[in-house]
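REQUEST FORM: STRUCTURE PREDICTION
Request ID: SP-0412
Submitted by: Lab K.M.
Chain count: 1
Length (residues): 286
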Amino acid sequence: MTAFALLLVLTAALLHALWNLLAKRARGGIPFTWLFSLLTVVLWAPIIVVYVIVWRPTLGWLALLFMLGSATIHLAYFLMLQRGYRHGDLSVVYPLARGTGPLLSMVGAVLLLGERPTWLAVVGALLIIAGVFAIAGGPEMLRRRTAVSGVSYGLMTGLLIATYTLWDKYAVSAVLVAPLLLDYGSSFGRTLLLLPAIRTRTEEVRYEWRVHRWEAIGISVLSSLAYILVLTAMITAPVSYIAPARELSILFGALLGTWLLKEGNMRGRMLAATIMVAGIILLSMG
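STATUS: Completed
RESULT:
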C-alpha cells in the first residue's frame, strides 16, 4: 500500500471515530439515520453540482446499478447494526462487526477479486483485528448475558461490512464510478429507501432535528468525507490492505473516549493501541 493511500485511510479512520462520537451522543435510530442521510444529500449537493459541471462525468446503467446496490447494502448495514444494539451489548456487537468485517473482506478479496496480499500484510491485518478485540475487552465481552445474540448480530453486521467493501471496491476500480458520486448516490438512495418507514414517524424526525441537529449535520459531513477518502484509496490499493487499516478508527475512538468522555481502562487500551500500531506498520511494509 502506498504512503498516500495509507494517509487517506488513517485520516478517514480519525474522521470515522469523530462522527461515531457524535452518533453516540445522538443514540441513533431510523429517524436519525434518515435525517443525517437527507442532510448529506442537501449539504453535499453544491459540491456535486460543481463536480458535474467541471468534470462532466458520464454514468451508464452499470454505474447506476452499482450506486443503487451500494445504497441498499449500506442501508442493510445500518439497520442490522441498530437491531444488534437493541438485542445485544454495544461492546460485543460493534467490535465483532468491525473485527470480522475486514477479515471477511480479505478472504473475499482473495477469492473474488484475485488479490494476493503478502504474508507480512496478512500478519499486520490480523494484528489490527486482534487489537480491535483487545480494545473491546477481549474474551470477557463474550461472557455477558446478551453475548449470544450480540455475537450473532455482530457477525451478520461484519458480513455486510465485507459485502459493501467488496462491492464498492469493484465500483470505483473496475466500473470507474467516482468516489464522490458513489457515496452521494448511496446517501441519496438510502434516503429514498427509508421514506416508507419515515412517513408515519415525522414527529420523531422533528424531535431529532430539534435535539440532535448539530450531531446530524456533523455526521453528514464527516461520514461522507471519511468514506470518500477510503473509496479514493481503494481505486489503487487492495481491499485486503484497506479494510483492516480502516479499523484504526476503533483505536482513535477508544482514545477519544478516554480523553474526552473520561472512559476508563487506559492500560488495556494502550496495549491494544500498541498491537494495532504494530499491525499498521507491517501492513504498510507489506
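NOTES: Residues 202-234 form the longest helix (33 residues).
Reviewed by: T.R.
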